Amino acid sequence: MKEYEAMLLAREQDSEVKEENEELRKNVAALQKENKTLSSAALKLQEQNKEYNAAFETLQEKLETMNVSNAKLLYINQALENASLNERQKRKIVEAISKAETVQEAKIVFETMNDTVVTTSDVKKEATLSEMVSRKSSLLVAARKEQTKDANPLFNRMQALAGIKTK
Prior knowledge:
There is one protein chain. This protein is mostly helical. The chain has two domains: 2-122, no CATH class; 133-167. Helices cover 86% and strands 0% of the residues. The chain contains six helices and no strands. The model has no long low-confidence stretch (mean pLDDT 82).
């Protein structure tokens, strides 16, 4: 081991090897300095990248919020412009759409509510209770008249003879 150290020491004292080693040390020092510079630049770029990612995420959230708001407004406007809906139906659709949290959810709510309301309003309904009562009773009275008319032929004959009813 001592011989190896002696050989290295002798080699270091050689002028050509000494110059070469000095040049290599200068190159190593320059490369270390450049490495430090590049490392600090990389750290700065990483910090900048983190800031850009945070800004991107914030903007992405705002964009999503805007898209949801725009979708809600679109479907609410379509519901309010629908002339076939009454005010109560419009209000219910608007309330349901306002509760949506995504664009897809707003679309599904609008389509479902609109289809439900339109199909139930297409079915013919009587406007008042009196219409319903008069319609059913008129059917019953007509059925009774037909029943009594054909029920007793002797009764019909007597009416005709008395001049109360003519054939």
